[in-house]
Write a structure and sequence with these properties.
There is one protein chain. The chain is of the alpha+beta class and 535 residues long. The chain has four domains: 93 residues; 97 residues, Helix Hairpins; 139 residues, no CATH class; 107 residues, no CATH class. Helices cover 18% and strands 41% of the residues. The protein is extended and about 115 Å long.
């Protein structure tokens, strides 16, 4: 191994090391926020010198992913990027107060110092009171022993007892005042720390800088574009629906969280549903064995059936616990904020407006008494936002007030949308059911008759006029086997249903005048052959 002398001149093509200088600012100019991470782009204009130079840029967020770092230089003269990397350094914060602290942080330090002094003083007072208590016990023991031996120095005993009791009272009162002050200090310190947490950010101990090695043929300016992925950032869609009579305004927003260690100030924000973290390998194929088995004589004579609940309202992903993912309908969607935004690195939710549109709505008062006795106002309209509405929560505003929070499913552009704006307090529905079972015919056919009665009421204010139509929906079973038949008895139902679909949903449009009451009766029967079991 050979060692070069310390004064040996560097080769002509070696990287020149300039003296330490402040790093070149590299602000965030554009962010593409993904489902669980973000792609950050930074731009800066560098004043390059001829030759090979190493530049220090930043600071940048320490969580940046090194292997995704990519730098591009554009200039009127030949320039090359030889190397780019992120160098992290630890900068522990000073434990005590400093001259740069804010008034709020200085107040926290002062309260902590006062609390520490109070706790030490409390310990000294408790020790002194304990010593006085032992002194009083010794004095009483001495009095008892002296009285037993015939001593009668009552003047001294009274003087000593009075002195000890006076000191105990003085220090006890001082201890009580001190404990009250410590309780007040604890409350004030907690409130001040909460205010400090909400208004200021702790400086990160781990700070990153970008070291960029460039080669330029001649001196001159060059534009740097640097991009990388970073974790600790995500977004989810959210909506705000304002219902005003027959019109509805739907505002689309993006809720963005980020804790990357640096604020995003005046950046172009793009929201994407692309999932770059998902694997691209196809699913593995597994064997699916089918076997045949002979039925027994008992199984051939009987048909086993059972009632089964089935969702028919919509198709979509299964619900998950915690923060749900972005439902984009299976296709990557891209949304863009119309104006530059600011998202601080505080880990809190920040709402970014994306779009808004106003459209006419078709409202109805719907009720499904089997599920809920409440009558809900449902608004139907078409998606006129010009883009797909991703699944997410929606804040519901009606009559200038917040009425609740609902869920908006994935909706393609121009597709119909349904939103429920809470229940109506002036409408009530009471549901009663009856069931009878009978066996008829020589084949011992089982017939089950079910009667459902719905009592609707409207409570109206004095002077209220006009009818209100309530859409009532009930369901009857749907048979999948020929041995079981379901029949709606229209002659016994009152009034006759307005509609019956293939899924067994029966609908009535019931008009209620102010203070009116109506009763809806539904009768249907389920008949099965004698060989059917499970009914």
């Amino acid at each position: 191994m050979t060692t070069a002398p310390k004064n040996t001149p560097a080769p002509a093509d070696a990287v020149s090391e300039p003296p330490a200088a402040p790093p070149v600012a590299l602000p965030v100019t554009s962010v593409t926020c993904l489902e669980d991470r973000a792609h950050v782009e930074r731009t800066a204009v560098l004043d390059l010198e001829a030759g090979v130079r190493r530049l220090r840029l930043g600071p940048v967020g320490a969580p940046a992913v090194d292997r995704t770092l990519h730098a591009e230089l554009t200039a009127d003269h030949p320039v090359n990027v030889l190397d780019v990397r992120i160098v992290r350094s630890r900068q522990p914060s000073t434990p005590g107060p400093s001259a740069d602290d804010s008034a709020l942080r200085a107040r926290v330090h002062a309260l902590e110092e006062e609390r520490s002094d109070g706790e030490r003083r409390r310990d000294r007072l408790k020790a002194r009171l304990d010593l006085l208590g032992r002194l009083a016990a010794d004095l009483l023991r001495e009095i008892g022993e002296g009285a037993g031996t015939g001593e009668t120095d009552t003047t001294r005993w009274a003087r000593e007892l009075d002195r000890v009791d006076a000191e105990r009272d003085t220090y006890g009162e001082e201890l009580r005042a001190l404990e009250a002050r410590l309780a007040t200090l604890a409350t004030e310190l907690a409130e001040t720390e909460q205010a400090l947490y909400g208004s200021e950010e702790e400086h990160a101990e781990l700070v990153g800088h970008v070291e960029l090695t460039v080669e330029s043929a001649v001196a001159g300016p060059a534009r740097l574009r640097l991009g990388h992925l970073t974790p600790c950032a995500l977004w989810r869609p959210a909506y705000r629906a304002v219902l005003d009579g027959d019109s509805l305004t739907l505002e689309t927003e993006a809720v963005v969280w980020q804790r990357t260690g640096e604020d995003w100030s005046d950046v172009r924000l793009t929201l994407s549903t692309a999932r770059s973290s998902l694997a691209t390998d196809p699913p593995r194929l597994t064997e699916d064995r089918l076997t045949l088995k002979d039925r027994s004589a008992e199984e051939r004579r009987t048909i086993a059936v059972e009632l089964r609940e089935e969702e028919t309202s919509a198709l979509g992903p299964l619900p998950v616990l915690g923060l749900p993912g972005v439902d984009d309908g299976g296709e990557a969607r891209v949304l863009t904020a119309p104006v530059p935004v600011r998202v601080p690195s505080d880990g809190r939710a920040h709402r970014v407006p994306l779009s808004a549109f106003t459209t006419s709505v078709r409202s109805e008062y719907a009720c499904s008494p089997e599920l809920s006795p409440l009558v809900t106002q449902v608004a139907r309209f078409d998606n006129g936002s010009g883009h797909a509405l991703l699944a997410g929560p929606v804040d519901l505003i009606r009559g200038g007030g917040f009425v609740g929070r609902g869920t908006l499913d994935f909706t393609a552009p121009g597709a119909p949308v349904e939103l429920a704006f809470g229940s109506r307090d002036d409408l009530r529905v009471v549901r009663r059911t009856e069931e009878t079972r009978d066996t008829t015919g020589l084949a011992q056919r089982t017939v089950v008759t079910r009667t459902v009665r719905l009592h609707l009421s409207r409570f109206s204010a004095p002077g209220e006029q006009g009818e209100r139509v309530v859409v009532v929906r009930e369901r009857i079973p749907v048979s999948e086997v020929s041995a079981v038949q379901v029949r709606l008895r229209k002659e016994a139902s009152s009034p006759a249903p307005d509609a019956l679909d293939a899924d067994g949903i029966v609908r009535w449009d019931v008009a209620l005048p102010p203070g009116g009451r109506r009763t809806v009766t539904l009768v249907y029967e389920v008949s099965a052959k004698g060989s059917v079991v499970g009914i």
